[in-house]
Amino acid sequence: xxxxxxxxxxxxxxxxxxxxxxxxxxxxxxxxxxxxxxxxxxxxxxxxxxxxxxxxxxxxxxxxxxxxxxxxxxxxxxxxxxxxxxxxxxxxxxxxxxxxxxxxxxxxxxxxxxxxxxxxxxxxxxxxxxxxxxxxxxxxxxxxxxxxxxxxxxxxxxxxxxxxxxxxxxxxxxxxxxxxxxxxxxxxxxxxxxxxxxxxxxxxxxxxxxxxxxxxxxxxxxxxxxxxxxxxxxxxxxxxxxxxxxxxxxxxxxxxxxxxxxxxxxxxxxxxxxxxxxxxxxxxxxxxxxxxxxxxxxxxxxxx
Length: 304
Known about the structure:
Blueprint: H1 7-21, H2 27-36, E1 46-52, E2 61-66, H3 73-79, H4 90-98, E3 105-111, E4 115-122, E5 128-129, H5 130-133, H6 141-152, E6 157-164, E7 169-174, H7 179-182, H8 184-194, H9 201-208, E8 212-218, E9 226-230, H10 248-256, E10 267-274, E11 277-287, H11 290-300
Antiparallel strand pairs: 1-2, 1-11, 2-3, 3-4, 4-6, 5-6, 6-7, 7-8, 8-9, 9-10, 10-11
Helix pairs in contact: 1-2
């Protein structure tokens, strides 16, 4: 496919990806998001993702990078009716992060069915310690309450924060994972302390090979709601290493997803684990921003 340079191009690509994965695509759900952030597409990074197990997904998510120079992403979402101000601390979390953390790039995330969901603040060259992030005024006390838990399990450096306005939760994306973190006893202990079901052998082997870990927290509960283990993005995506089988339609979508660079699509695979057990998140990259390209080339060791 050719590069995405406009909102219309972006809609066309989303429509194609939706058709491939079997999710209904409505212009009414997608167009308000694309026009709100319509000046960013020329050099935007774009990724699709589906959450799935053996059944077919009901949603296709799309994520778009936004340069820092764009301005206030939260105000843009408000003024375009993508979210509403609620009086909840989540309303000021992004601005509080901006005042304290050197952000390299933003991302927005939306669902083809559900609409606008999240704003991410990405700082891959300025990792932040959990203890410092816990001092941010609008952060829930949940983060400070779990800081020692993360530290005990060798999770200390955060590279990105995702704010989910629809669910009123946020994600911490941990980087710099060590061999101590990847030890089986550490991962099992983490599950037990959080109160999550113990993973079976295939899920555990997947978790031990993760290059990123993220945790979902909220303002309403002191517990970590969900954890996720992400593998290094790869061109040589192999469904046989997944901890569960996926539907043939999903495999076909991942391998054939539209992308504006040569060769096979770069895919990131993540295993999510909550109180109900585990499921997968599969994300093929569609287009690469300069920052995304730089990071992925370092991770994959190949020119993109």
